[in-house]
Design goal:
two-stranded parallel ribbon, 1 helix, alpha+beta
Length: 60
């Protein structure tokens, strides 16, 4: 975990998963729908957008 630059949580506090001296970015996602299919589609969309965002940050 110490090598990670970004942590995404969904209802869990990030400090429970990262070392105390970690200085990366935490993104917290919440889902509006209770429908499993809609949640899966939304998570897939967000993961794709996250990777696109991380890749574009690495190009600068």
């Amino acid at each position: 975990m110490a090598d990670a630059d970004t942590v995404v949580t969904m209802g869990c506090p990030a400090p429970a998963f990262v070392p105390e001296d970690w200085d990366g970015e935490v993104r917290t996602w919440s889902l509006e729908s209770n429908d499993a299919r809609e949640q899966r589609v939304e998570i897939e969309r967000r993961v794709t957008a996250l990777f696109d965002d991380l890749e574009s940050d690495g190009e600068h």
